[in-house]
């Protein structure tokens, strides 16, 4: 079984200490400056969740009990939470760490007999089961990021750097300090080194309590042993740790509870788990060693489960009675006038300090990720070359009208659908964001603003400028400076509006595929009302209002006005009249699409005045702002409890 662990540390000014224990969920607490170590006690902890089941006839809600009346004390030292899979160990750990949803939770967790402070999540450390560190950064850069945002602003940069270097040495990460952690595309450090990096990012602040959720998950036996041995050795070398005595536990199980004795060369933690799980081998071998009647014991086990036996025997043992008495003493000593406060998030640095560091990490992550940097520019250049080759050198005739209209429509729709990649912006880093936000790294607004700026600049603006420079001159659009920059501005605004809508849709989604479905449907409806597939003037009144929600419509109108105003497509009228199809050509020129760009725009129902041009840019800007506000609100209020 893998480990969940809790470590309690000294106040922020103390040296960092570590401890660990393999074999179960683990809780370790360090000695602090006071004469006695911090003690965590939990009183009548209950936690239940609502499970909704849908049937053909009706929808019902069932309450499932996860934790039932848990009471205990965790003294300074190493503490383990043992139990089979699905027994609620991680839920219990989250309750102790104040990271569990308060809905359905009752009971109290006390630190040295006092209620947990409302910002306990920021004062404590929490290493999640999955190592959520930025893989494109080095070990040192990740630790420096944590130190910059979580240590007090009164600590100088030199002191923070010294603390990082000391922690790297303590965690035996010197050889890989300047190596990238690694991603799916970048080869990085080993699993054990990655786990130690995750632990180091929490230990950097010397937290009062450090929780580790299954720190050996995904590691082989040797690596898991080395990680926990390193933590254990470091703690015992610095602190007076009061550890649970294994021989005492053996005495409790063998004498007080049911009479289970662990063999001399058996791992006590594994043996206890076998008993809790009701392993027949452990139960029967114990009974045989105690000269018990095998058949009688099998019958007894069938009449009453091992779990029920353990619970019943535990309630009546001397250990439970003494524990209950001590819990009552702690409860009586608690100040009952102090009420529990709501959970809050506190920060040690200013808004702009956080923005600078989060923006640096976000930009650096994009630059070092070839999938989002080099590949994006390569695909954009290739797409621009293909489009430019297809529509190369448009002419000022009737084919030129069709080609111009077609390429402008393609560019606007392509800008919309190319923003589907932004759906991963918040979804792929959801766990990282929630963990860092609840730990007090940065504000939601800081994370949101850094993501917006980095994506709009690196993924939208730069590729759009490159795309425009290639396409505009290959196609041979209006050769004026003003027209070129208006074209570029329009395409950038279309991209920004589309990506902001993508963010608004995907901000509260947890699956990229679901977000992509919603966005694709939205863009398809917008494309219908863009002005090419259907004449907007012919749409029924009760549906015509949908055109005001179409991002491609505003972009296409602006690009058409910018390109068609001032152009003439009929050429030499005398040459047209002398052609065999003079009547048909003149009809097409004069009555349908017109000889001038203005006539074409009038036929499309487009106002080509100055306001007609710039109101499209204003509309795109407003849509961008509205969608960004929606995305921020969603990100601000997504559930952040486990």
From TrEMBL:
<keyword id="KW-0472">Membrane</keyword>
<keyword id="KW-0067">ATP-binding</keyword>
<feature type="transmembrane region" description="Helical">
    <location>
        <begin position="511"/>
        <end position="534"/>
    </location>
</feature>
<dbReference type="InterPro" id="IPR050352">
    <property type="entry name" value="ABCG_transporters"/>
</dbReference>
<keyword id="KW-0547">Nucleotide-binding</keyword>
<dbReference type="Pfam" id="PF00005">
    <property type="entry name" value="ABC_tran"/>
</dbReference>
<dbReference type="InterPro" id="IPR013525">
    <property type="entry name" value="ABC2_TM"/>
</dbReference>
<comment type="subunit">
    <text>Homodimer; disulfide-linked. The minimal functional unit is a homodimer, but the major oligomeric form in plasma membrane is a homotetramer with possibility of higher order oligomerization up to homododecamers.</text>
</comment>
<feature type="domain" description="ABC transporter">
    <location>
        <begin position="51"/>
        <end position="288"/>
    </location>
</feature>
<dbReference type="GO" id="GO:0140359">
    <property type="term" value="F:ABC-type transporter activity"/>
</dbReference>
<protein>
    <recommendedName>
        <fullName>Broad substrate specificity ATP-binding cassette transporter ABCG2</fullName>
    </recommendedName>
</protein>
<keyword id="KW-0812">Transmembrane</keyword>
<dbReference type="InterPro" id="IPR003439">
    <property type="entry name" value="ABC_transporter-like_ATP-bd"/>
</dbReference>
<feature type="transmembrane region" description="Helical">
    <location>
        <begin position="374"/>
        <end position="394"/>
    </location>
</feature>
<dbReference type="GO" id="GO:0015562">
    <property type="term" value="F:efflux transmembrane transporter activity"/>
</dbReference>
<dbReference type="Pfam" id="PF01061">
    <property type="entry name" value="ABC2_membrane"/>
</dbReference>
<dbReference type="InterPro" id="IPR027417">
    <property type="entry name" value="P-loop_NTPase"/>
</dbReference>
<feature type="transmembrane region" description="Helical">
    <location>
        <begin position="613"/>
        <end position="633"/>
    </location>
</feature>
<dbReference type="GO" id="GO:0016887">
    <property type="term" value="F:ATP hydrolysis activity"/>
</dbReference>
<keyword id="KW-1003">Cell membrane</keyword>
<dbReference type="GO" id="GO:0016324">
    <property type="term" value="C:apical plasma membrane"/>
</dbReference>
<keyword id="KW-1133">Transmembrane helix</keyword>
<keyword id="KW-0813">Transport</keyword>
<dbReference type="GO" id="GO:0032217">
    <property type="term" value="F:riboflavin transmembrane transporter activity"/>
</dbReference>
<dbReference type="InterPro" id="IPR003593">
    <property type="entry name" value="AAA+_ATPase"/>
</dbReference>
<dbReference type="GO" id="GO:0005524">
    <property type="term" value="F:ATP binding"/>
</dbReference>
<comment type="similarity">
    <text>Belongs to the ABC transporter superfamily. ABCG family. Eye pigment precursor importer (TC 3.A.1.204) subfamily.</text>
</comment>
<feature type="transmembrane region" description="Helical">
    <location>
        <begin position="457"/>
        <end position="475"/>
    </location>
</feature>
<feature type="transmembrane region" description="Helical">
    <location>
        <begin position="481"/>
        <end position="499"/>
    </location>
</feature>
<dbReference type="GO" id="GO:0031966">
    <property type="term" value="C:mitochondrial membrane"/>
</dbReference>
